Amino acid sequence: MVFRTFNSYLKAAYHTEVGKICIDGGFTCPNRDGTKGVGGCIFCGERGAGEHLCAAMSVREQVEDYFRRPHRQKKFVAYFQNFTNTYASPDVLMRRYTDALIDPRIVALAIGTRPDCLGEDVLDVLSAIKERIDLWVELGLQTTNDDTARRIRRGYATEEYLRACERLRARGIPFAVHLMIGLPGEGTDELRTTVDTVARTHPFGVKLHGVYVMDGTDLQADYLAGRYTPIEKDAYIEAVIDTLLRLPPDTVILRLMSDCPPGRLVAPAWNTDKAEVHAEIRRRMAERGLTQGMLFTP
Ligand code: SF4
Fold first, then answer.
1. Residue 159 above 90 pLDDT?
2. Which pTM does this prediction carry?
3. What is the pLDDT of residue 153?
4. How many Cβ atoms sit within 10 Å of the Cβ of residue 132?
5. Who lines ligand 1 at CB under 6 A?
């Protein structure tokens, strides 16, 4: 295996194939409600990540609805995906997370959030939930370059990420990090700085996203005005390989690229070639004798 895949991790941890239930927890984001900003990050759609989900249903209804359909897996991870899923009072958080646990086939919770939304009261809730079920937090970092962070309107400094890692580690809460490849103004040097910084925080998981332009976003306006050019497919494949070499060998690679919601992709057209990109990353790594972590220095 040239890198540590999410499926292999799940299979080892739960001794069976594990499915994923994506949940819209009905939260918003400080980058949208005026606390940090109103427009959101420049690449983010109006429903946050997980545009296809149904915010009209409660968490419980979404889980029940999911299990009304047949699924070949016997165990599942419930993933709180849209917006910032720790951005509410502790009572609300506890209720929504607990509502996802109504079905015993759910064996773990993954909670997508921002490093600046992890106060001690929130960590108390996460610690309590972790007593009941496996749990990890997914931090939308994207880059450690604060100039890029300002350009994409992330709304917090990288220092917040480093502090969040320390607080999560102190509580024994595993964390995964979302990184974006092909951000405006970023090339190989900026990506390597981000990856090396994140590698030193030794996350449980990393999720890689190629930046794509979705319709209705501010990045679309930049793209149409010629201010943003998406990364080419070959450059993306090489950037992913370089990233995998630099990450710790035991970090789980949760994803190699992301999907644009159906019908919303503006560019790059190759973003739909997911299977081909995956296969090419594996093929090139195997051909060159490369494995995850080869360039990681603990
Ligand atoms: S922090 Fe996440 S949910 Fe909020 S605007 Fe940015 S990408 Fe969207």
1. yes
2. 0.96
3. 96
4. 11
5. 29, 31-32, 40-41, 44, 48, 83-84, 114, 140
